[in-house]
Each structure stands twice: as C-alpha cells, then as structure tokens.
Amino acid sequence: MSGRLEISSITKQFDGVVAIDNLSLTIEPGRITGLIGPNGAGKTTLFNLICGFLRPDHGTITLAGQRIDRLPPWNIARLGVGRLFQDVRVFDKLSVLDNVRVACATQPGENPLWALVAWRRVRQAEDVGTATAKRWLEFVGLAQNGLRWAQDLSYGEQKLLAIARALASDASVLLLDEPTAGIHPHLVDKVLDCVRTLRAQSRTIVIIEHDLQVISDLCDEVCLLDRGRLLLRGVPSEILGDSEARRVYVGQR
C-alpha cells in the first residue's frame, strides 16, 4: 500500500483548548517531512491522531485513499503506520530478537487452536518471522545483539531496535518522534543513515525533531506548527532561515 497521507481540516480540542486547529497537510511517499514548532504546537497530538490514539473532533485522515481516523490503533498499524515513540517503549524483559519478532504481521501461533492442529504452519510462520526480524536487525546494525535483553542495550541502540520493530510490521508510513534525542553522537549518524535508506524505499517518513541541524540535513521539507496550525511549509533552508520561523520557534525577532 502506498503511504500517501492526507490530513484534511482536522481539529482537536481538550477541555476547550484547541490543540489542532483546522489543519490540512498532504505527506507524500519517498520524502522525509519534518515537524517543528515550540512546545504545545500540536506535533505529538498530530502523531496521536494519525495513529488512532486520539480521534479528531472534525476533519479526516486518509492513508492511500482509505479513511483511518475512525479506526482503532491496531487496525491503523496493520494498514502500515509505524511509530517510534520519544520514550522508545521496547520490551525490556524480552530479547532483542523477540522484540522484533512480536511485530511481524503473521502470527498464527497466537491462536492456541492453530498451535495444536496446524503446528507445521505455525512453525513455518515462526521461521519466517525470525528471518524477518534478523533482516531488520541487520539493517539497523544490531544483528550481533539478538540474544541480549533489550534492557541491556544503550538508549540509542533501543531506538534502533524500535525502528527495526516498526519495519518488521511492514510499515509504509513511519512517524519518528525525536529519533536522535538523548543518544550518543556516534549513533546519530547510524539513525540518520537508516532513515535515508528508508526514504529511498519510497516509505513515507514524518519526523519530530528539536535538533534543527538534523532537520536541515535530513528533511526534504519542513512544516512549522504553532498552536495547532500550519504556519509555514517549505524546504529546510527556507523555513529555518525565515524570520517568522525564528520568532515562533526560538523567540528571535
């Protein structure tokens, strides 16, 4: 499924406070779109709306022409939307390999009846899941860590693990919340290289990032949000050099 996202006139309020204000935005596959803005601009709320954790009060969200804003989160994930949370959320007490295996789409072994009457099929699916998990661990540079507990990885390695897990679910849309925040500088380049490779695979990538150098180096376009509205949109050099953007984002005049 193509990962073209269309956000049309969505609004979201919390107890009368407008978090997203009549926002419209189309995000194309094969591009990296950066979301920037001050705290409270609506960036995380927008991610929560796309993932189905929240429902818009008005407006629609479609993926490849299919409306998703009324679907539960697990259905949206099955349609190809994957997310990297700022606080990572790996399964600490599972191995690195199992963290990725659980994300694989086909899991007939979850049904006890299948495990009893169709064990060969279950075993084949498990073998496919293991191969898929190993492939994505290789992609993010964690192939040698498969048997380690996830809790024993560094914070940066856990972010790479979370990316591998999203990819194992066959996500065509990746929502990355602060992928380089808090990680060792030598892993930043690895994260960015992974993201660039995924763009080349025609995936749709949206990134929230406060490091403007990362935004400048990585993104094809940048959207500046302020109070739930799309204030500016353009290539990084235009947006990051704009006086209005500096005023809103860093308080400069």
Features:
253 residues; alpha/beta; Rossmann fold; six-stranded mixed sheet; four-stranded antiparallel sheet; 39% helix; globular
Give a structural overview.
A six-stranded mixed beta sheet has the order 6-7-8-3-9-10, with helices on both faces. It has a four-stranded antiparallel beta sheet with strand order 2-1-4-5, covered by helices on one side. It has two domains: 166 residues, Rossmann fold; 62 residues, no CATH class. Helices cover 39% and strands 24% of the residues. It is an alpha/beta fold and 253 residues long. It is globular.
Concise summary:
The protein is an alpha/beta fold and 253 residues long. It has helices at 43-51, 73-78, 96-101, 112-117, 119-140, 155-168, 185-200, 212-218, 236-240, 243-250, and strands at residues 5-14, 17-27, 31-36, 58-63, 66-67, 81-84, 173-177, 204-208, 221-226, 229-234.
CATH topology label of the largest domain: Rossmann fold
CATH class of the largest domain: Alpha Beta
The beta-strand count equals 10
Report the average pLDDT across residues: 88
The fourth-level CATH homologous superfamily of the largest domain is P-loop containing nucleotide triphosphate hydrolases
Strand order of the largest sheet: 6-7-8-3-9-10
* Pattern of helices and strands: EEEHEEHEHHHHEHEHEEHH
Number of helices: 10
Strand content: 15-25%
Largest sheet: 6 strands, mixed
Reconstruct the topology from this structure.
Elements: E1 5-14, E2 17-27, E3 31-36, H1 43-51, E4 58-63, E5 66-67, H2 73-78, E6 81-84, H3 96-101, H4 112-117, H5 119-140, H6 155-168, E7 173-177, H7 185-200, E8 204-208, H8 212-218, E9 221-226, E10 229-234, H9 236-240, H10 243-250
Parallel strand pairs: 3-8, 3-9, 6-7, 7-8
Antiparallel strand pairs: 1-2, 1-4, 4-5, 9-10
